[in-house]
Amino acid sequence: MGRKRCVGADCSKMAAGCCGVKKQKLSGSPGSGGPGGVGAGSGVAGTGHCGSELGIGSSATVAAAANVSRANGLGGPGGNVSGSSSSSGSSGTNALSPAPAGYTSSGLSPNLSPGTGSGSGGRKMVVSAEMCCFCFDVLYCHLYGYQPPRTPRFTNDPYPLFVTWKIGRDKRLRGCIGTFSAMNLHSGLREYTLTSALKDSRFPPMTRDELPRLFCSVSLLTNFEDVGDYLDWEVGVHGIRIEFFNEKGSKRTATYLPEVAKEQGWDHIQTIDSLLRKGGYKAPITNDFRKTIKLTRYRSEKMTMGYAEYIAHRQHHHYQNGIGHPLPPYNHYS
């Protein structure tokens, strides 16, 4: 069994990653290694961003435009990750200064969906629909040139986190970046909302026209445990982060959020092999090599909100909260 190392926000030195979207066929036997791109994953700590359209992701340390510490837990084959080593995980800095309070938690639609792995052991979840709504507000204000939204009223406790954007009826991945460094939620969600929407190197920056088709997911990572056996985790329950040495002796890291393996229909071996490929391992994958992997398992709390739900909430609370910008100027919501 795994040895519990840290819980939730205590894991401030971890690196980060993102989750899976479209089904991917794994060609060949598990022993040959899963497919997936050669997203470079370097650095024990620090962050990166997801892979390509699949959303499965390596956890590389990425040189972002604003030197933002970030990572992707979705990823996919062939992610355009430019890796650079980092000695420690940075929580990043928030370029958007918080404004006065004005966000509530009431009046949210019951159709909002908690994601796979949400909650554990019957305890009350920290993640909430308001966090998704806040992310939409941050993105909307940025795209329309309004002042950043007021400070939200949900908890500001520190957590490792990811913000994921999907688009369209088939919910294609549109951006996913996060961090394993515990960040206060108010500044962390502000930062990674825009980083995942505008700086995911697999996609062009988001535009106003895309807003009505977006879905936002917020994942808070908890219950990190080092395990001695690379098979000691449960598909659909645990996210996994692996560290390994590639053919050249360089340390690499990669991660999948808890929902990835289940969404892709992968078993343990297929997931591990896909992560190795995602992290840039090109040699044949043997069982002896898998045994050299250092694996950390973790859980997440996830909440997803569609744009229509966001608009319904904003219309309901626009005047009560005194939010300082108008509602989105889309005819079907006016």
Q: How is the secondary structure organized here?
A:
Layout: E1 3-6, E2 17-18, E3 72-73, E4 99-101, E5 113-114, H1 129-144, E6 150-151, E7 158-167, E8 172-184, H2 185-198, E9 214-227, E10 239-245, E11 251-256, H3 259-264, H4 268-278, H5 287-290, E12 294-306, H6 307-321
Parallel strand pairs: 2-3, 4-6
Antiparallel strand pairs: 1-9, 5-12, 7-8, 7-9, 9-12, 10-11, 10-12
Bin the helical content.
Answer: 10-25%
Distance between the termini: 55 Å
Q: Quickly count the helices.
A: 6
Structural class: alpha+beta
The secondary-structure element order is: EEEEEHEEEHEEEHHHEH
Query: What does the overall shape look like?
Result: elongated
Summary keywords:
334 residues; 20% helix; single chain; alpha+beta
Give a structural overview.
The chain is of the alpha+beta class and 334 residues long. 20% of the residues lie in helices and 23% in strands. It is built from six helices and twelve strands. It has helices at residues 129-144, 185-198, 259-264, 268-278, 287-290, 307-321; strands at residues 3-6, 17-18, 72-73, 99-101, 113-114, 150-151, 158-167, 172-184, 214-227, 239-245, 251-256, 294-306. The strands form three sheets. Strands 1, 5, 7, 8, 9, 10, 11 and 12 form an eight-stranded antiparallel sheet that branches. The chain has a two-stranded parallel sheet with strand order 2-3. The chain has a two-stranded parallel ribbon with strand order 4-6. A hairpin with a 5-residue loop joins strand 10 (239-245) and strand 11 (251-256). Helix 1 (129-144) packs across helix 2 (185-198). The radius of gyration is 19 Å and the shape is elongated. Residues 2-17, 19-70, 75-111, 319-324 and 329-334 have low confidence and may be disordered.
